[in-house]
Amino acid sequence: MSSCDVPGLMPLADAINKMQDTLCNVCEAITLPLSSALGYTLNQDIISQQNVPPFNNSAMDGYALHCDDLIDCSVMHPISLIEVGKSFAGAPFEGSIQRGQCIRIMTGAMIPDALNCVVMQEQVTVDGETITFVNAPKLHNNLRFTGEDISVGQTVLSKGHKLTPRDIPLLASLGFSELPVYRQLKVAVMSSGDELRPLGSKLEQGEIYDSNRYSIIGLLSRINVEVIDFGIIKDDYSEIKAALIKADQQADVVITSGGVSVGDADFIKQVLNEIGEIGFWKLAIKPGKPFAFGKLQNSVFFGLPGNPVSAIVTLYQLAVPAMAKMSGEAVKAPLRLNAVCIDTLRKAPGRTDFQRGNYSVNEQGQLIVTTTGNQGSGVFSSMSQSNCFIVLEQDRGNIAKGETVEIEPYSQLMD
Ligand code: AMP
Ligand code: MG
């Protein structure tokens, strides 16, 4: 416990660890064509059955030769070799070659075993079949060797790796037309609250539009899960119970927002305690104190707070890594960097703040961060105008201009 731990509030790291310890992969293995596998997680190590490149080849358009033939070559002492054939990409030279001879070669074309370097075409003069050189090239000049990128038997990607656009061409170069991956996690999403109205309806007094479902589904669309949208659920015991039972039958994960704080109309707690095993946590983070986590009959439950900033912060910081574990993905710690804060920030010790800011590099090359202003948990513009979290440690108080703070640039989930 740190000096500022508040009794009854759970530090974020404990909450993350607790979820990681409780959860396991629930997604079965499937096979997908390479062209559909982007964003999926590998369920096996990928071991190369090929060398890349598969043969020694030229890195330049030019002339392939044996470098001993040009050992004494210089501008003062040019040497000529006889071109005896050509090697093009896909059409290798198949004749025999003697010393004193060379071949025309193009980028990516196979180089015969008898030759050991390539001279760029810009560095020679051509007179029919007589090619004149003015430099002594180094051994292996402009050559690309068999397996220099990847060799047979090498593990190129590991189980648990989520496939990026950079991986797909690599796997194509190795000839993988299909890949062993985990299926998508199925995630049911619903908003809860009598005040919430769907887009397109007219707001009556005291009503607001349901925005959380859009932030939640938007963010989920970046992590390659199958979303089942359950819409808005009223603060009504039977409606909540029916929706949660149905969601539990259809999904691996059920995410709600709203109704997990202490409020008279919050029936979610009551229903969850009946149909599952749920812990209602008070997290030592701001925003996002109330958070529910537990198990229904078939699925895992995340109850996000209703306030729009709190909902997205807890989804991003807690539920996303938990869902990664459930998808068989190797969970990575977020990138955090030190930056100079050029604004004053208000902060009370006791909770870890995820304030919203904008980082940039100033003229001196220093990483700096500014605040987006009002940090209320219902002020979503503080989120939409930001490009990073300013993560202020639990023990910390107000921040003065010029102090160093930790920032967490948004990953591609939020950018
Ligand atoms: P609750 O957690 O249900 O007490 O809600 C906390 C605050 O978040 C209240 O101001 C709610 O109106 C608001 N809120 C709850 N759900 C949503 C939602 N889906 N979209 C926008 N605001 C919401
Ligand atoms: Mg509510």
Distance N to C terminus: 34 Å
Ligands, ions, cofactors: adenosine monophosphate, magnesium ion
In helices, the fraction of residues equals: 10-25%
- What is the strand tally? 26
Instruction: Name the shape in a single word.
Output: elongated
Rg: 31 Å
Mean pLDDT: 95
Query: What about the largest sheet?
Result: 6 strands, mixed
Global structural class: alpha/beta
Strand line-up across the major sheet: 7-4-6-5-9-8
Number of helices: 7
- Give the amount of beta strand, in percent: 25-35%
- Poorly predicted ranges: none
Could you explain the architecture of this structure?
With 415 residues, the protein is of the alpha/beta class. Helices cover 17% and strands 30% of the residues. The protein has helices spanning 12-22, 167-173, 212-220, 237-250, 268-275, 308-326, 381-384; strands at 29-33, 46-47, 57-58, 62-65, 79-87, 101-105, 117-120, 124-127, 130-133, 143-144, 155-157, 178-182, 186-192, 196-197, 208-209, 226-233, 253-257, 277-282, 285-286, 290-295, 300-304, 337-341, 352-361, 367-371, 388-392, 404-409. The strands form 7 sheets. Strands 7-4-6-5-9-8 form a 6-stranded mixed β-sheet, with no helix packed on it. A 6-stranded mixed β-sheet has the order 16-13-17-21-20-18, sandwiched between helices. A hairpin with a 4-residue loop joins strand 20 and strand 21 (300-304). Helix 3 runs parallel beside helix 6 (308-326). The protein is elongated and about 95 Å long.
